[in-house]
Amino acid sequence: MLTVEKANLHYGAAQALRGVSIKAEMGKITCVLGRNGVGKSSLLRAITGQHPVSGGAIAFNGATLNGLAPYSRAKLGIGYVPQGREIFPLLTVKENLEAGYAPLKRGDRTIPDDIFSLFPVLQSMLGRRGGDLSGGQQQQLAIGRALVTRPKILVLDEPTEGIQPSIIKDIGRAIKYLRDSTGMAILLVEQYLDFCRELADHVYIMDRGEIVHEGPAETLDTPEARRHLTV
Questions:
Q1: Cα–Cα distance for residue pair 81/84, rounded to 1 Å
Q2: What is the fold of 2-229?
C-alpha cells in the first residue's frame, strides 16, 4: 500500500499541496480528480520523488519514501507514466522500452510479453522511432516502458490527455487487466470523469491543494463531488 500523510509541497513561496492524505491499495485502482491547477500533478511529483515535500510523510509497503531519489523509488517498485508521455523521440520503440531496464537487476532485463499482449501495436513498431508514433501510440509506449520496470504500483498522470477515443478504451482495458491479473496498485490522476467512473475502485477529489472529497467511485455522481469538478 502507498500512503501519503498530511503532505505539504511548496514551489518557492507558493504552496501546491496542503496537508494531503491519500491511500492507494494493492489490487485496486485509485483515482485523483480535480480541475486544472489544483495540485494533482504536484501530488504525483511528491510520490515519485520529482519534487521534495516540505512536510508530511510518504510510505510504500511500510518503507518511508521521504528523501529518496526517484531512481531509488523506482527500484522499490514505483512505476511512473508522466503527463505528456515524455518518451525519447529519437530512440526506437524497442530502445524506449529498454530504458525501463535501469532499475532492474541484469537477469531481469527483458521486455515482458504482457506489454505486447496489451499493446500489440508496439510489437509491430519496435524499429520505429518514438517521435514517429501518434500521440495515442506514444502513450501506450510510455505505459509499456513503466511496466518494463516490474512495478508494484503504477502511477499515471492524465493518460487520456489528447488521446483518440479508441486508444482511451485500450488503455482502460489495460489498466483493468493489470489490476485484476497482477494485483498491482494503480494510482491514476485524471480529468476525464467517465474514464474514472468506469475504472476506479476509490476516488479522491482535489481543490486548491487539498483533498475535498473521498469515497467509492459511485460517489462521483453526488452533488458534493460534482460541485468540485464543474468548471
A1: 9
A2: Rossmann fold (3.40.50)
